[in-house]
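#structure-requests
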Amino acid sequence: MISDNLHRIQQRLTGTAARLVAVTKTHPVERLREAYEAGARIFGENRVQEMAAKQPELPADVEWHLIGHLQTNKVKYIAPFVHTIQSIDSLKLLLEIERQAAKHNRMIEGLLQFHIADEETKTGLTLAEAEEILQSAEFRALRHVRLAGVMGIATNTPDEDQLRREFRQLRGYFDKLKALYFAEDEDFREISMGMSSDYELALREGSTLIRVGSAIFGSR
């Protein structure tokens, strides 16, 4: 079942620039292995402890993405292996990722998380806050974190017009930051948006990373 679901989604991505992040939170390692056997290589976890526990159990070529809120005091647990932290929402967090990545002489990719949802519980930056970070001397001094794009979580709603508006807003933020701060930087290319219920819409609005869990593994 996992392999059928994965192949169906991968087929949908054929001909697009988008890649699939298989969201593995709360699923046991056996099911992750099943997804790996079926071709999944990017796994997204929400919680640091869960990611750190699963990582040694899976092949070394898995690209681990942290997609949940990250506290600065937890960065050290994933710094040795995490590929991308999709949920960067403060300069303080960025500087801690730099510090921990430097200890392991690694480069960690990051996405700036924006608040695009009509829900207070969702975290993320405003455009002004993101620009403040990008204009700071501290940001320019980073050597072990590479910002690769933006991420956002849309409102949990069946209203397609609202979802489309939110995805377009995130795409607009990406375009603006790209033009102003990353025009010469080929690495700044990712727009992470779209989940199991709305990834089709997100793809139409330019998503390059879809974060899909229940449509692959079934509901938890």
